[in-house]
């Protein structure tokens, strides 16, 4: 190892983790990536990549060995379809990952630790309307997250606060609001709404069948934040002295129907939206970025249209390749 600051990115085989590894390498850090899988869409830029199951304490000790700063992103997660149907698995796996990673980092003397939480910690009763009031950090209490995924995030947030109070560890906690971009899961059941929408529209374009299925009436609302803003925000928070949870997202809210229209326009096609039964999550959600601006003097700036244009082009290419492969297999 060199004398550069040594950072660990857990979940480095995943969507945000793989982008963060590249970003941190470009900033001049020595980076160790850890995951149970290698990145699916291209080699990792990490100086060292270890395949480790972080539910196990001894693996967490090995992952954090010699590390100065930890970015903890590993999680068993996916979009609404996955989160709303795997409560026990998510709560069990993510609790083990986060309990062990944080404590192993303390044991190995890591100086800073950033935990990646989620807007899913916010109470369901504040998100029952499509025209929802943007969520401030303090709205997380009294607590009533919708899913086990959010409950675990809330407990791990508290763990970070207590590790600072009791052990003096410098901990940071970020609450992401729907991060999207290229090189993220786009099929298979764990994909999130923007990737799923890009895949459906790309498939409609390729096949000429304009029907695009949308879960529910499509009027549920969200804000979406592009990946380059996400990694910049994570880094800025790590470098700050702010130890409380902080929102990281865009504060422009759109409905899922509007999201579909934007993607269709980027693709240059007309679509027929077909509303079907499916998990929708909360009715409305948006980020209040007042504290983000105060603390970091910065906020995400890539527009939804700009971010989706890049994401769509990448997913369209994945869909075309997968379609071509299945055609050639069928004709072989
Ligand atoms: P992702 O699923 O692409 O990445 C998570 C990675 O963790 C995966 O590569 C997975 O293999 C790995 N992992 C799972 N179990 C593991 C284990 N036992 N040991 C080691 N690695 C394990 O998800 P992402 O979108 O990159 O999310 C990164 C973090 O941000 C997660 O903690 C997630 O909960 C949080 N988050 C993401 C979003 C979003 O919109 N993407 C929103 C809120 C919070």
Q: Ends: how far apart?
A: 49 Å
Over all CA atoms, what is the radius of gyration?
20 Å
**CATH fold-type name of the largest domain:** Rossmann fold
Kindly report the oligomeric state of this protein.
single chain
| Uncertain segments | none
Task: State the shape.
Answer: globular
Mean pLDDT score, rounded? 96
The number of helical segments is: 10
Helix content: 40-55%
What spatial order of strands do you see in the largest sheet? 3-2-1-4-5-6-11
Order of helices and strands: EHEEHEHHEHEEHEEEHEEHEHH
CATH superfamily annotation of the largest domain = NAD(P)-binding Rossmann-like Domain
What hetero molecules are bound to the protein chains?
nicotinamide-adenine-dinucleotide
| SS-based class | alpha/beta
* DSSP summary, beta strand count: 13
> What's the main sheet like?
7 strands, parallel
The CATH class assignment of the largest domain is Alpha Beta
CATH architectural arrangement of the largest domain: 3-Layer(aba) Sandwich
């Amino acid at each position: 190892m060199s004398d550069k600051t040594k950072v660990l990115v857990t979940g480095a085989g995943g969507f945000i983790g793989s982008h963060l590894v590249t970003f941190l390498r470009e900033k001049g850090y020595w980076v160790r990536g850890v995951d149970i899988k290698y990145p699916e869409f291209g080699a990792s830029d990490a100086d060292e990549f270890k395949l480790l199951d972080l539910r196990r304490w001894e693996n967490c000790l090995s992952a954090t060995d010699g590390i100065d700063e930890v970015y903890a992103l590993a999680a068993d997660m996916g979009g609404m379809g996955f989160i709303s149907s795997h409560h026990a698995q998510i709560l069990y796996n993510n609790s083990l990952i986060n309990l062990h990673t944080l404590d192993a980092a303390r044991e190995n003397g890591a100086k800073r630790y950033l935990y990646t939480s989620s807007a899913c910690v916010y109470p369901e009763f504040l998100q029952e309307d499509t025209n929802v009031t943007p969520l401030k950090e303090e709205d997380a209490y009294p607590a009533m997250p919708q899913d086990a995924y959010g409950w675990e995030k809330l407990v791990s947030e508290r763990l970070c606060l207590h590790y600072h109070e009791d052990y003096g560890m410098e901990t940071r906690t970020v609450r992401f609001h729907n991060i999207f971009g290229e090189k993220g899961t786009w099929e298979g059941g764990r994909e999130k709404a923007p990737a799923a929408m890009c895949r459906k529209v790309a498939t409609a374009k390729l096949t000429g069948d304009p029907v695009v299925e949308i879960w529910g009436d499509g009027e549920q609302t969200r804000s979406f934040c592009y990946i380059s803003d996400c990694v910049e925000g994570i880094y800025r928070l790590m470098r700050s002295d702010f130890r409380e949870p902080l929102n990281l997202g865009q504060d422009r809210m759109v409905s899922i129907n509007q999201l579909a229209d934007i993607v269709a326009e980027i693709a240059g096609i007309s679509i027929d939206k077909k509303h079907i039964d499916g998990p929708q999550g909360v009715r409305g959600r948006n980020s209040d970025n007042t504290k983000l601006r105060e603390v970091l003097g910065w906020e995400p700036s890539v527009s939804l249209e700009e971010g989706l244009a890049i994401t769509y082009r990448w997913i369209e290419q994945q869909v075309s390749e997968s379609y071509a492969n299945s055609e050639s297999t069928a004709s072989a």
